[in-house]
Amino acid sequence: MARFRFAAPSSSEITPEHVYLRRRELLGSAVAFAPALLLGCDRGTSAAPAAAAPVPASPFGKVLRSPYRTDEALTELEDVTAYNNYYEFGTEKDDPARQSKQFVAKPWHVDIAGEAEVTGRFSFEDLVKPHAPEERIYRLRCVEAWSMVIPWIGFGLGDLLARFKPTSKAKYVAFTTLHDPDRMPGQRRGVLNWPYREGLRIDEAMNPLSMLAIGLYGRELPNQNGAPLRLVVPWKYGYKSIKGIVRIEFVEEQPPTAWNDSAPNEYGFYSNVNPEVKHPRWSQKSERRISQASGIFGSRIATLPFNGYGKDVAALYAGMDLRRFH
Predict the structure, then answer these.
(1) Which domains does the chain carry?
(2) Theoretical Cys-Cys bridge with 177: which of 43, 196, 271, 322, CB 3.0 to 4.6 Å?
């Protein structure tokens, strides 16, 4: 296979080499003093709390090393920031990096609405400041049968939602992306019914694995990866992890979601990674890990149910027909 070349990121976008060398050293030595941090028995992640240790200095100040992580090899920074699905900036994988260069993600506000005691408009800083940032190494599995392993910086979604005191009527959480065709040229095309919308059941949203990401690889979240605020739900296909969030609403009924609305026969509301549910146009039984070392893709590997996080989330779907509720 011919080697695929991505456009090189600017020097300001790359974590300093000495930080990365030290970081990998810490990851390797962590097994010796905190086995619970690095779990590999099913290539999954344990939601059991463990002692956190600080990671090297970052734009966020002190960042905790989260117990929610995998020990798999990381996808290269160049690939994470150059091979993206973000249709607001174009449908080709290299469009988001090219088309979002002039996008200014701050100031930023998020509207909190619906069935909660505390609602209103909050600045990005108001939302983020009360939460200690942590690094979580999660796999991201895309419905096109490719995957990455990314060191996200962020905090638990449930921790944020609890601040707004959702009422007993809040059965789901709905998310909406910024709609601004002037700054997001992909929205000038009718590829989807804009703005992009996603949703989770409230118990999914409160699960300890669900997170809001504000950075990756020790730096602020790049525009093409969803700056300044995106969702990361590691047991679901990547399109559930909505980017550029400007609205979070607690609702009683299942909310409409962008891809389910566009192609319900291909994209379900739940979108749990399930190798037994075939996409109408391709199999989901295996995936290719994005890797510079092996050309554009690494070797093909088996796809795991719930993306390998089954022991932490399978109970959420007990008794459900996961072929019907895909």
Answers:
(1) 11-317 (3.90.420.10)
(2) 196
